[in-house]
Automatic annotation (TrEMBL):
InterPro entries: GH (IPR017853), GH10 (IPR044846), GH10_dom (IPR001000). It catalyses: Endohydrolysis of (1->4)-beta-D-xylosidic linkages in xylans. The keyword Electron transport does not apply. Residues 1-27 form the signal peptide. Residues 31-343 form the GH10 domain. Keywords: Carbohydrate metabolism, Glycosidase, Hydrolase, Polysaccharide degradation, Signal, Xylan degradation. Its EC number is 3.2.1.8. It is an enzyme of class 3 (hydrolase). This is Beta-xylanase. It comes from Streptomyces pseudovenezuelae. The keyword Hydrolase applies.
Length: 345
């Protein structure tokens, strides 16, 4: 009898917490997070973050609660991790991985082979193919080994193609030829056989010459048994260029090759000032892209390229544009946030 009454009290307390009746702290836990909603579909909902903004406690609280996947925006790039040849610095990457782990979040690691944000010791001289191969292998294997068992996936190669689907003439391509992509994937796989290995790029959301190049590459790599697990579609979208309406079809064709896909760096920028109309259109786009991922079985999740306009990279890189993320500069949710929730419900 007494036992039953205790059980009843327990159930009542649970109901009060679940419905948000109780202390304000309990009430704020009532709403499922984007991560909770995504998990019901077997997906994740992630955000990029960067080391300087981790001193912002309100920012950090939302980052730690609303998402279940984290990407370091800069901390794992070559300039940060191997600033001098053979001298590795894990400070920034570790800070973000440790924070994510403390919040039971997984990590999409970013990025190993890219033409941008390279240290000057690497770009400031000529390399023979033999030398550069050794430098690349060492960088990849040292970094992947360091994070082995701690990250869900790696963006192994980033932005390898031009808009017309030809190979981008990077340091890597010019010195090593197109085989550097398969090599990089094999080296990364040796260093962490459990990490999901991705190639990642922008403007490949729609079917077109650039995404066709990835489709052809993926097919070829699969045929050669190269360890490629997924294609990352950055999805840096802009209202003035129109929505990529073939996104879902595009995700599906990669799935059919036996690959995962992910939207890895989502933002939807607009020409400033933001108006109610533009914010409503932005919300529609966030809803649509979330629904596209949910509609394709092997689309594993969505990551926004940071979650608040306060720390977006857009204003610095696209002058006159901004307001690209689901939370505003005051960390208040925008229509886009509610649209994502709708899509996930
Ligand atoms: C951006 C970062 O957000 C900025 O802080 C940095 O100054 C430049 O790079 N594609 C990518 C990301 O793969 O690494 C880029 O991140 C955005 C475009």
């Amino acid at each position: 009898m007494r036992k039953n009454r205790l059980r009843l009290v327990g159930v009542l307390a649970a109901v009060l917490v679940a419905t948000g009746i109780g202390s304000p702290a309990q009430a704020s836990h009532k709403q499922p997070t984007l991560a909770d909603l995504a998990e019901r579909h077997g997906r994740y909902f992630g955000s990029a973050t960067d080391n300087p903004e981790l001193t912002d406690t309100a920012y950090k609280a939302l980052l730690g609660s609303e998402f279940d996947m984290i990407t370091p925006g800069n901390g794992m790039k070559w300039y940060a991790t191997e600033p001098q040849q053979g001298v590795f610095d894990w400070t920034n990457g570790d800070e973000i991985v440790d924070l994510a782990r403390s919040k039971h979040q997984r990590v999409r690691a970013h990025t190993l082979v890219w033409h941008s944000q390279l240290p000057s010791w690497l770009t400031g001289r000529e390399w023979t193919a033999g030398e550069l191969r050794a430098v690349l292998k060492k960088h990849i294997q040292t970094e992947v080994r360091h994070y082995r068992g701690k990250v869900y996936s790696w963006d192994v190669v980033n932005e390898a193609f031009n808009e017309d689907g030809t190979y981008r003439e990077t340091l890597w391509y010019k010195t090593l030829g197109p085989g550097y992509i398969a090599d990089a994937l094999r080296w990364a796989h040796q260093a962490d056989p459990h990490a999901k290995l991705y190639v990642n790029d922008y403007n490949i959301e729609a079917v077109g010459p650039k995404s066709d190049a990835y489709y052809a590459l993926a097919k070829e790599l699969k045929a050669q048994r190269v360890p490629l697990d997924g294609i990352g579609l950055q999805a840096h979208l802009a209202l003035q260029y129109g929505y990529p309406t073939t996104l879902e079809d595009n995700l599906r064709r990669f799935s059919r090759l036996g690959l995962d896909t992910a939207l890895t760096e989502v933002d939807v920028r607009m020409i400033l000032p933001a108006t109610d109309e533009k914010l409503a259109q932005q919300a529609d786009w966030y809803r649509d892209l979330t629904e596209a991922c949910l509609a394709v079985r092997r689309c594993v999740g969505v990551t926004v390229w940071d979650y608040t306009d306060k720390y977006s990279w857009i204003p610095a890189f696209f002058p006159g544009e901004g307001a690209a993320l689901p939370w505003d500069e005051q960390l208040l949710p925008k229509p886009a946030y509610f649209a994502i929730r709708d899509a996930l419900k």
